[in-house]
Each structure stands twice: as C-alpha cells, then as structure tokens.
Amino acid sequence: MLADLHSHTYYSDGELAPQALVERAAANNVDFLAITDHDTTAAFEHLELSNIPDSLQVIHGVEVSCLWESKEIHIVGIGIDINNAPLQALLKRQQTLRLERAVQIDRRLQLAGHTGLMRYLEQQPCQAISRNHIAQFLIDGGIARSKDHAFKSYLGDKGKYTAAAQWCEIPAAVQALHNAGGIAILAHPNRYPLNKVKLRRLINEFAQCGGQGLEVSYSNLDSDRMAHMATLCIENKLWASTGSDFHTPRNQWMDVGRFRHLPAHCADKAIWLHPDWPGRRPI
Ligand code: AMP
Ligand code: MN
Ligand code: MN
Ligand code: MN
Fold it and tell me: Which of 65, 124, 180, 183 is deepest in the core (most CB within 10 A)?
C-alpha cells in the first residue's frame, strides 16, 4: 500500500501539470495520490478523470498556510469537497494574501533596482503565488545563486526582500477542512523552526482544535526522526499520514511516492484505517 497524501502541481509551486503528476505517481507505483496544492484546488479542474491510470486513485486535497505564534505552519486537508463554498472562500482569501505579499516584495525589489517580478508572475500558470516562484525569478535574474540562497538571503524570515502574510489561524483552517468533509493533517512537523517543547505544544493544540492527522513519514526524514514523529502522533491520538511533498522531478530525493513505510509502532494508526478514509470513495 503506497499512499502519497501530499503533492503539488503548477497550480501552486509544483512544476508538473496535474496529468503529468498522476502519470508519474502511477509509474512510481503509488496507489493513492492526494494532490494538495498550496491554498488552491485548481488542479482538479484541469484533470480529466478518464485519463487517470486505473491503478491509481486520486484524492482531493489542499495545503493551507496558517499562522501559529507568528510562524508559518502548513495543514494538509484530504478528502475535501472542492465545491464547498466556505472552504473556497477561505482559499480565495489566502490567494489574495499571496498576491498582496508578492506586490510588497516587488516594491522592495524595485527599490533595489530589480524590476519585472509581477510580469514574471503573470506568466505562470499558478493560482497561488508562492515564494518558490519569486525565488525562481531571483535565480533567473542572477540575483540569487540557488533556491536555498534565495530563501536564506532574500525571502526567508530574515530575508532582505521578505514580506509577511496574515495567514488564517489553525482552528479556522481545521474547521473549514472538516466542514468540507475532509481530514486535517499537520504537515511536515519537523520542518518548522520550533524547539521540541514548542513542537509538542503545536501538535497538542492542533489535536485539541480538531486536527486528526500528523505526517509521520515524508521525504528526507531519517528513521530516528520518523520514529519520534510516530511517538508524537500516538501521544496525541492522531492518525499517521505519509506524503512526499513532491514539487519537481528535478529533486530525486522528493520524488512522488518516495518516503519510508510507517514505523511498526504506529501501523494501527495509519490514516488509511481512519473511518472516513477518502480512498474508499471514488472522487
Ligand atoms: P510560501 O507558501 O509562498 O510561503 O512558500 C513556501 C514554499 O517555498 C514551500 O512550500 C516550499 O515549497 C518552498 N520553500 C520554503 N523554504 C525553502 C527553501 N529553503 N528552499 C527551497 N524551497 C523552499
Ligand atoms: Mn511548496
Ligand atoms: Mn508545506
Ligand atoms: Mn507541500
């Protein structure tokens, strides 16, 4: 059983079209694929159901950016009704925040003599503008050497051109995903700049406000850290999720379907055992 419940297309900051993503997932033996673009479900409007390989089941999803104690936290929702109006209203607000943040960054870039960001962004197929796109603009313009450099020097928390966005709060995102029939999962817990105590508190608060899942296995997570995530998952009575967070075929370490099996001590909490597991209903 291979369930990749976290992946991106070019409707947010991924590189592939939805059709190319599902074909790649099927070729990598993925059984269930949740497409979880940042703050948009546009990919599903561009995916022809009849073209999905028979061996693969696609699950409707989204990854919502939230603010928690002024840190950016990501919540993945799977099995959502993409036509749910309140959820789409929340996503629309998030997309507007993304556009406004890009405008602010563009102003800062212009003051430093770098023009053309907004024109570049208009040419992208994305519906949700990400700092990943802006990082690519900085690389193409010779301003940054790499994505890492772009984030460290220019777009990260202490970056030269960075601008913050007032994302929604965690309880609002969890509620909206839940009301849209989905399961809310806290994404890549060890990637946040939080110490162990704060991470525990984040996971605990997430569970308290109705969050149901925790990503336990994902790309670039070694087995010791994964075992720790599994322990946190069990302690908080959450379901254990798996997902690559695939963005681009150019990064072989984050390929779709590429992550470890769940550790044995949380196997009975695997998210596909959840009573509302969306893999049981066809999209
Ligand atoms: P945003 O959603 O616009 O805040 O941008 C965050 C996205 O940028 C994440 O989803 C990652 O895909 C990407 N990202 C964040 N940090 C880095 C980094 N240090 N290097 C490369 N990509 C990053
Ligand atoms: Mn991303
Ligand atoms: Mn994320
Ligand atoms: Mn992601």
Answer: 183
Q: How far is CA 279 from the centre of its chain?
A: 19
Paired sense of beta strands 71-78 and 183-186, if any: antiparallel
Asked if residue 162 belongs to a domain, the reply is no
Determine if ligand 1 sits within 6 Å of the CB of residue 147.
yes
What residue spans of 150-246 are helical by DSSP H? 170-179, 196-208, 223-235
Residue 96: phi and psi, rounded to 5, are: -65, -40
- Token reading at 165: 């966005």
- Ligand 1 centroid–CA 13 distance in Å is 9
Ligand 2 centre to CA of 9 (Å) is 9
CB of 86 within 8 A of CB of 180?
yes
Q: Which domain holds residue 72?
A: 3-83+183-280
Per-residue tokens: 31: 């059984």
In a domain, 54, yes or no: yes
Distance CA 129, CA 121 (A): 8
Phi-psi region of 70 (alpha: psi -120 to 50; beta: other; left: phi over 0): left
Closest residue by Cα to atom 16, ligand 1, is 151
Residue whose C-alpha is closest to residue 260's, from 202, 221, 211, 232: 221
In which element (H, E) is residue 73 found?
strand 71-78
Query: Ligand 1 in contact with 132 (CB < 6 A)?
Result: yes
Tokens of residue 7, six digits = 């992946």
Give the pLDDT band (50/70/90) at residue 281: confident
Rounded Cα–Cα distance for residues 189 and 203 (Å): 8
The model's pTM: 0.98
Decide if 122 is inside a domain: no
Q: Please state the domain count of the chain.
A: 1
Written as six digits, the tokens of 46 are 């561009």
